Automatic annotation (TrEMBL):
Gene3D superfamilies: Cysteine Rich Protein (2.10.110.10). This is LIM domain only 4. Keywords: LIM domain, Metal-binding, Repeat, Zinc. It comes from Ictidomys tridecemlineatus. The keyword Metal-binding applies. Signal peptide: none annotated.
Length: 85
């Protein structure tokens, strides 16, 4: 996942260190084959969801957006921007 609002890159992850990563969504250990990095945290692919529509962001694209501390899919980010105008 790409977080356009952040320039930070995830720290390198090696196969042996995956068991030490904790999911920011559920708090569980990440031992999945894939993990996502957004808002300076690691996530299970099933736990990184849009704060508005609850879509699993790993399933709908390669980008996520942040606004007011919320993680949003592209559609909800655009909708929220239009409401702010």
């Amino acid at each position: 996942m790409v977080n356009p609002g952040s320039s930070s890159q995830p720290p390198p992850v090696t196969a042996g260190s995956l068991s030490w990563k904790r999911c920011a969504g559920c708090g569980g250990k990440i031992a999945d084959r894939f993990l996502l990095y957004a808002m300076d945290s690691y996530w299970h692919s099933r736990c990184l969801k849009c704060s508005c529509c609850q879509a699993q962001l790993g399933d709908i694209g390669t980008s996520c957006y942040t606004k007011s501390g919320m993680i949003l899919c592209r559609n909800d980010y655009i909708r929220s921007a239009k409401r702010s105008e």
